């Protein structure tokens, strides 16, 4: 079954041998990792730490960043820290303490989910380190307010990456005008309709 995704960014999905019928409308994480390397180099940083949420998104993203930084040269990774999938109490304070072990690496590249980003910022604020770190965040942070709300001082100066977005003229009008009468070719539309309108057809 052909699939088109609007949000799947894992690099391995680019392998046509394994995912012959998969396509996407967003670039793989390897592109944003390269953009993050470009940002770090443009800022003149040569020594950064990386922070990743455990799992495919975070670990693959950091791996792509490290690989791109090696290819570009002139960038050293102070340490790579992984946030466990189910962090224990005090885990984020521990992350901040580990980052402080290489305190001269004030730039931190984040490939983490929204909740982990928020908790890292909270831990930095609690440790009285607001403003100490310069964050470069991936698209999971992007332009979202939720990770930084109430933690603006800890996030101040962060640079976040977000794939270019554009509106397709006429798409919203077309999509919202679909109904059971004019959309018979989509086999799953009636299931969507039932779920969206909480009804049985």
Automatic annotation (TrEMBL):
Keywords: Disulfide bond, Glycoprotein, Membrane, Receptor, Transmembrane, Transmembrane helix
The keyword Transmembrane is annotated on this UniProt entry: yes
One of the record's GO molecular function terms: G protein-coupled receptor activity
Family: Belongs to the G-protein coupled receptor 3 family.
Principal location class: membrane
Localization per record: Membrane
Name used for this protein in its record: GRM6 protein
Pfam families reported in the protein's UniProt record: ANF_receptor
Bilayer topology annotation: Multi-pass membrane protein
Domain Receptor ligand binding region: 1-184
Listed GO CC annotations: membrane
InterPro entries: ANF_lig-bd_rcpt, GPCR_3, GPCR_3_mtglu_rcpt, mGluR, Peripla_BP_I
């Amino acid at each position: 079954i052909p699939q088109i995704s609007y949000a799947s960014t894992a690099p391995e999905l680019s392998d046509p041998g394994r995912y012959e019928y998969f396509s996407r409308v967003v670039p793989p994480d390897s592109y944003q990792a390269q953009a993050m390397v470009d940002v770090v180099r443009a800022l003149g940083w040569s020594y950064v730490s990386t922070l990743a949420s455990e799992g495919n998104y975070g670990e693959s993203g950091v791996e792509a960043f490290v690989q791109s930084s090696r290819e570009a040269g002139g960038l050293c990774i102070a340490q790579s820290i992984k946030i466990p999938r189910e962090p224990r109490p005090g885990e984020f304070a521990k992350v901040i303490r580990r980052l402080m072990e290489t305190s001269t690496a004030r730039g931190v590249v984040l490939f983490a989910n929204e909740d982990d980003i928020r908790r890292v910022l909270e831990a930095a604020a609690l440790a009285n380190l607001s403003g100490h770190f310069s964050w470069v965040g991936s698209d999971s942070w992007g332009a979202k307010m939720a990770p930084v709300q109430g933690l603006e001082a800890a996030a101040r100066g962060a640079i976040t990456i977000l794939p270019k977005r554009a509106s397709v003229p006429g798409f919203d009008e077309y999509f919202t005008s679909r109904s059971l009468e004019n959309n018979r070719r989509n086999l799953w539309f009636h299931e969507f309709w039932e779920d969206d309108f909480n009804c049985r057809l």
